[in-house]
């Protein structure tokens, strides 16, 4: 199980930057497809909000993956006294 946690930790660390890269590329593509200034303004606002929300989620995935890969989750407490 600990090996699976470490492998998934690597997956999360890779998935965070890949997701943000994909979202940035999609934002650039969608903003470039708009024709009028009003559509462009709305699209920029929408994608700005999407990127603002998903950037901390992506960073959290990377941090969680780093700790899983490092082995911080190998020994979990069984009750509240173990904390």
From TrEMBL:
InterPro entries: DUF6814 (IPR049211). It comes from the Bacteria. Keywords: Membrane, Transmembrane, Transmembrane helix. The chain crosses the membrane at residues 7-28, 48-69. This is Phospholipase D-like protein. It comes from Pedobacter jeongneungensis.
